[in-house]
Amino acid sequence: MSRNIRNLCLAVLCLAFFAFTWTGCTKAGSVTNASAVTYLSIIHGAPYSSAANVFLNDTLITPSAIPTGAFSPQYGTRRPGSFAAKFKKAGSDSVFDQLPASTYDTLNFYTLILYNDAYGKAAHALKIFDDYSGVVNNNNAYYRFFNLTPDYPGVNVYFNDNQVQSNRTPADNAVNKGFNSFQSISQGSYIISVKDAATDSVIASTQAFPLQSGNPYTIWITGLRSNKSITINVLQSKY
After folding, report:
1. Which site among 7, 39, 169, 206 is 20 to 30 Å from 25 CA-CA?
2. Cβ(42)–Cβ(54) below 8 Å
C-alpha cells in the first residue's frame, strides 16, 4: 500500500475525526512513531439511521458524531488489543448495533461499517479486515466495491465502458467476505458508473480520475433510491 497517496472523496461529506494518535506517513515499510499500533477506519453507510458515535470497550473514539454518509479520510491508530465495538445513536444511549470483542492486531488494518439491511431497515455493524498483502507496486491499481444503498436490490459497476461487477446486492460483503478483498485493474483514468442491474440505467457516476499503480481504493454507493440521494464515494487508502 503506497504511503504518499491522496484521499479522493467524491461526495461532499462531513468527515469525523477520530480520538486516535495519527501516524506520520513515510516511505514504504516504516512509520514515524511506535510500531505497536493497529489501524482503524469507519464508514457510516446507514441512510435510514441518524448520526452515530463509536465506542471501543465503552470508550468513545469519535468525539464528534458521525453523520449518515460520512467516513474517515484516513486510518487512525490505537494500541492493539481485544475490543467490543458499538455504534450508538448520537446524543443518547440507544445502540444501533454492536460487535462482540475481537482482536485488533499490531500493524493490521480494519474498517468498521454501519449499514442498513434491505428489509427491516435495521442498522447493523460490520468489521472488515483490510488485507493489503496482495497489493504490489506493478502496473495495476486495486479496488473493492460495496453497495451500501439498502433500497437498490442489484447494481452493476462499470469502469469506463467495461463491466467489472455484476448484480451487487445491498451489503452483500457482510455475507460474502470475498467482496472485501481488493481486485486488480490496470492503472489508468476511469469514469466509474453504477447502473441498475435490472434496467441498465445509470444510478450514479464519477468524473474521470486516475487509479494509480500500486494503490488500493475502496468504492461504494450510499444514500437512498427513494429520495434520489445516491452518491459514489472513492477512498484511496491512507494513514
Report:
1. 206
2. yes
Q: Is residue 2, in this structure, part of any structural domain at all?
A: no
User: For residue 216, is it within any domain?
Assistant: yes
Total domains in the fold of the chain: 1
Q: Could you report the per-residue pLDDT of 29-76, keeping only the tens digit for each? A: 233 345 799 999 999 999 999 999 999 999 999 989 999 999 999 999
In a domain, 154, yes or no: yes
Using CB atoms within 10 A of its CB, is residue 190 exposed (0-12), middle (13-18) or buried (19+)? Answer: buried
Question: Do residues 220 and 56 touch, judged by C-beta distance below 8 A?
Answer: no
Q: Where are the beta strands (DSSP E) in 65-224?
A: 76-78, 81-89, 95-104, 109-116, 123-130, 140-148, 155-159, 162-168, 183-186, 188-190, 192-196, 202-205, 209-211, 216-222
Q: Residue 196: which residues within 8 A CB-CB, separation 6 or more?
A: 152, 154, 155, 156, 203
Residues 6+ positions from 116 with CB-CB distance below 8 Å: 46, 47, 48, 49, 122, 123, 124, 150, 170, 171
* pLDDT tens, position by position, 216-229: 999 999 999 999 99
> Is 0.85 surpassed by the pTM of this model?
yes
Which range of residues forms the domain containing residue 177?
A: 38-236
CB burial of 97-112 (b: ≥16 within 10 Å; e: otherwise) equals bebeeeebeeebbbbb
Q: Is residue 17 part of a domain?
A: no
